[in-house]
Design a protein that fits this description.
The chain is mostly beta strands. Helices cover 3% and strands 46% of the residues. It has 2 domains: 315 residues, Tachylectin-2, Chain A; 196 residues, Jelly Rolls (Sandwich). Strands 26, 28, 29, 30, 31, 32 and 36 form a 7-stranded mixed β-sheet that branches. Strands 9, 10, 11, 12, 13 and 14 form a 6-stranded antiparallel β-sheet that branches. Strands 25-37-27-33-34-35 form a 6-stranded antiparallel β-sheet, with no helix packed on it. Bound molecules: 2,5-dideoxy-2,5-imino-D-mannitol (DQQ).
């Protein structure tokens, strides 16, 4: 196996070669799903960015087309950066994207429309001459003015969009309004802003239902009670955060709920490697789907040049509001299950302290695993050190890794493991007793993922807390999607999601193994474990 291919993913979205980043303008139009994305047609590092374009009938098998948008005019000569699609009421799609107009990264907002609506794949896109549509006024930092959202229409018949920006380290979602989608006026106040959060990239703003898991169109104005979600990608730490709140349509402002905080102590769509995400409403299946970019972590540009490719898109996830109203839930789209092949199943298997066993009979380098764990009491939970309250979850995971014996946990999966565990990426839970409640830590720890010795390797102990009540239900579930160099995990039915990129040297292809382990004193029962080898979809 050549260096080029050893870490290539099997069922994640990837073009045949070169660099990719942000997913752009995902949409469903006349029976076809479209995904555009930031792409370097000339190499495997960021640069020469165009909008690559792929289409699909099922979000799993893809046809790669010619780039839809590439720099060519004064208004995008130095780059065609991220943006979004809106389907106008007469069923006409339009794309808004950021054009870079000079070598200092000055930014404007442009639009593009399909050249031929009867082409089922919408291959060709036109950038009309009345571009740019929006230029920054004097109050705006020209180099921090990008990534327009999908537009939504208010009761007054005006379209609205948000554009990411920053003023004096205050991140903001600038609001613009338009009657005809061509002439846009900046609102006096941003939709929302927050001090000390730095530039907001790729904002995403959408309604969620309080009643069920169905998605809502951005312009939803029906009777159902809704909340709104504002997601931003923070370029200061390359993670993204969201809040849940109320959209005051009279004042045209978004107000996060009291318990929903902006910035790096807030909620994350994913506690690992996941950035510049974008969601869209899928009218076919009445759901909202979010796509996110998962970049490489083998950091040396040299690695990417050798491989000839860099970046994947995470598995698209259905996203909805948790019944508590406090957080989102995400789950891999159901179409992914069509790739499941050989299956193995286990029931009611007990794992006592220090036990570990191998899950055999599936391909451990390309798999989908669903497991539910139960335990009979919380008595063994370790004390949560009050000093950790100020730490990020990933720092607590670094202190309390999978091999440090505990009380209730650590238990979970050792993924992409070599036979003798020289390499593995454990995905696991650990339950702590804090002053007033229990704290459930979920980790996806890349620190032992590879034997490769290199100071620059990024091998973080990604982690997040899981907000479940274990007092009533002494159960925790985990789903992990393993795909050669990515482990994408969903804790407690999608409450906490963590994606890690890892680069094993031994645990590759048929030499990868999968284990289940318990390093806590409390015995854990595997109620059910279902695991499947995963097929490779068509992607050409
Ligand atoms: N990537 C794009 C920008 C965006 C950033 C450029 C986020 O539009 O802000 O490739 O990854």
């Amino acid at each position: 196996i050549s260096v080029k291919n050893v870490h290539r993913t099997g069922f994640h979205f990837q073009p045949p070669k070169h660099w990719i980043n942000d997913p752009n303008a995902p949409m469903y139009y006349n029976g076809v799903y479209h995904l555009f994305y930031q792409y370097n047609p000339k190499g495997s590092v960021w640069g020469n960015i165009v909008w690559a374009h792929s289409v699909s009938k099922d979000l799993i098998n893809w046809i790669h087309l010619e780039p839809a948008i590439y720099p060519s005019k004064k208004f995008d000569k130095y780059g065609a950066w991220s943006g979004s699609a809106t389907i106008l009421p007469n069923n006409k799609p339009v794309i808004l994207y950021t054009g870079v107009v000079d070598s200092h990264d000055s930014q404007v907002q442009n639009y593009a429309i399909p050249a031929n609506l009867s082409d089922p794949f919408l291959r060709k896109w036109i950038k009309p001459n009345n571009n740019p549509l929006i230029v920054p006024d004097n109050s705006i930092n020209k180099t921090k003015f990008r990534d327009p959202t999908t537009a939504w229409m208010g009761q007054d018949g005006l379209w609205r969009i948000v554009i990411g920006s920053m003023r004096k380290h205050r991140g903001m979602a600038l609001l613009y309004r338009s009657r005809d989608f061509i002439k846009w006026a900046k609102a006096q106040h941003p939709l929302h802003s927050s001090p000390h959060t730095g530039n907001w990239e790729c904002p995403d703003f959408f309604p969620v239902s309080l009643k069920n898991t169905n998605g809502l169109d951005a312009s939803y104005r029906g009777k159902k009670k809704v909340k709104h979600v504002l997601k931003n990608s923070l370029d200061v730490n390359r993670f993204e955060y969201y809040t849940i709140g109320m959209y005051d349509t009279k004042k045209d402002r978004y107000i996060p709920d009291n318990n929903s905080i902006d910035g790096s102590k807030g909620l994350r769509l994913d506690y690992g490697n996941f950035y510049a995400s974008k969601s869209f409403y899928d009218p076919m299946k009445n759901r909202r789907i979010v796509w996110g970019w998962t970049n490489e972590s083998d950091v040396l540009p040299d690695d990417e040049i050798k491989k000839g490719w860099a970046g994947i898109q995470a598995i698209p996830r259905k996203v909805w509001l948790d019944p508590s109203g406090k957080q989102l839930i995400q789950w891999p789209i159901e179409e992914l299950e069509t790739l499941r092949k050989q299956k193995i199943q286990l029931n009611n298997k007990k794992l006592s302290k220090g036990e570990m066993f191998e899950v055999k009979g599936i391909s451990a380098s390309q798999a989908d695993i669903e497991v539910s764990f139960s335990f009979s009491s919380l008595n063994e939970a370790e004390q949560f050190d009050p000093k950790w309250a100020d730490l990020y979850a990933q720092d607590v995971c670094a202190i309390k890794g999978s091999t440090i014996q505990g009380g209730l946990g650590p238990f979970g999966l050792a993924t992409l493991a070599s036979k003798n565990l020289e390499e593995y990426t454990p995905v696991f839970f650990r339950v702590f007793k804090a002053q007033k409640n229990y704290k459930i830590l979920m980790c996806s720890d890349a620190r032992r993922s590879t034997m490769r010795q290199n100071e620059a390797m990024y091998k973080p102990s990604f982690a997040g807390y899981v907000d479940v009540d274990l007092v009533d239900m002494k159960k925790l579930s985990l789903r992990s999607l393993i795909d050669n160099s990515v482990v994408e995990s969903f804790g407690a039915g999608g409450k906490t999601c963590i994606t890690s990129r890892v680069y094993p040297t031994l645990a590759i292809h048929n030499n990868a193994h999968l284990f289940v382990f318990n390093n806590g004193s409390e015995t854990i029962t595997i109620e059910t474990l279902n695991a499947w080898s995963m097929d490779v979809p068509k992607m050409h």
